[in-house]
Amino acid sequence: MAVADEKFMQVSMGPQHPSTHGVLRLLVRTDGEVLSSVKPYIGYLHRGLEKIAERVTYPQFTPFTDRLDYLASMNCNLAYAMTVERLLGIEIPRRAQVIRVIMAELNRISSHLIAFGSLSSDMGAFTPFLFGIREREAINDLFEMVCGARLTFNYIRIGGVSQDLPEGFTDRTKEFLDYFPAKIREYNDLLSYNSIFIKRLADIAVIRPEDAFDYGITGPNLRASGIRWDLRRAEPYLVYNELDFDVPVGRGEMGTTGDAWDRYMMRIYEMEQSAKIVGQCLGMLAPGDHTAKVPRVLKPPVGEAYVRAENPRGELGFYLISDGSTKPYRLKIRTPSFANLSIVPKLGKGVMIADLIAIIGSLDIILPEIDR
Amino acid sequence: MEAKKIFDILSGKFGGSIQQLQESTFPPSVVVGSDAIVEVCDFLKKAEGLDFLSLVCLSGVDLKEQGRMTVVYHLGSMKHGHMIAIKVELDRSSPHVRTVEKVWPVANWYEREAYDMFGIVFDGHSDLRRILMPEDWEGHPMRKDYVYPKRYHTWDV
Known about the structure:
Number of domains of chain A: 1
Number of strands of chain A: 9
Oligomer: heterodimer
Strand order of the largest sheet of chain B: 1-2-5-4-3
CATH topology of chain A: Cytochrome-c3 Hydrogenase, chain B
Largest interface: A-B, 34 and 31 residues
Low-confidence stretches of chain B: none
């Protein structure tokens, strides 16, 4: 804590702080309870993943993508695999595509459960966090069945998935899907429509559509501002074009379109849609190969591609340049949280300190993918 | 809109500053002279039918063998669903390019990252500091000829 000048006080929030969702430092200048400026300092989790990518072969980099957004490792695996496959020109068997969608959507649900839970605990309600963790455990059990891991899966590989679904997976997933909608109703009764919670979030930190474009906001945060943009619909990959699901957008139900409550509620709506997608995919599972025939040594032809996918937090893109060797020449990782965090100095100006917690929580950032 | 058509529109408007169309990349890329980059970006953002409202990704690339550095701007339009990459080629010994943060504010952070990792200087940038590495770090780690330090302060690295 330091006095910046007579009027303002400078306070460092983080790097170790329970509500910053990782190792993030926010340097705030306060005038009493009101913030005059917020400056994020990032990089505490920088591991140089882009540099590492230039030193390892293409398949060897897959486990590193798990460490980008560890709450949605499947989705990160998927985006990376799709990037390399585009350069290689590999067709993925249909069964592998359906399995990938199942995994991506289950992981989206488990990631949104954490978003839901952590925002609630930021707002001072700890119980919903435990509720979210409870359902997430069920999904983690499913992931453990398919690949043995519960956090860093390394399951979606270049060419397909590492192994076929185990016996009993479909039944256990159906069991989960049967009881999950009731849980969402429980979350809504407990938290979403709780008047204290609404008062903490409604009309707070409104992101207008033009600001969302300017700051590269993607994913649920963008849709909360009323823009119907979802890569699963806009640039369908895998089997998404055959699936029936809605893309929910913010409508300002409790205040203004694009406020923190809308951003929170997008996650609830999307969990419903993801559960619907998983249910449809289970019905589409036909016998077939779980992976394409991929050469032992991967040498994508010289070229470059920017491939993106809809992650729980927004658009994850890989810009890959191949020089024809076994290792990437350059791999730039465009992560959604990096851009989503860059709007915080703008949103944080002139709000109360407690609202800054709501802003960070409602943006649902995750630091390992910001710092890479 | 087709990349060829975007290239023709740009060529008609900016002439010789629009140097090349690369259709083999995904998405297709247009190589632009570094002196015109801000005007080209501003035009791409505002022109009707193009509407590249989003700077999706900004990457530095070190082409050491060719003595060049490239800044790649991936632009997207959610209105029309099209994408294009704009490339600026810079001299590797002193990479300088004007900032586009006035066009897309998110470029502020992207450019800081490219500066941090590659040492590309964005002229006119409001706050060109390192973003991921510590402020007193020496060198730019993503350069191909980067030499790893043996020590950082009191630590062996």
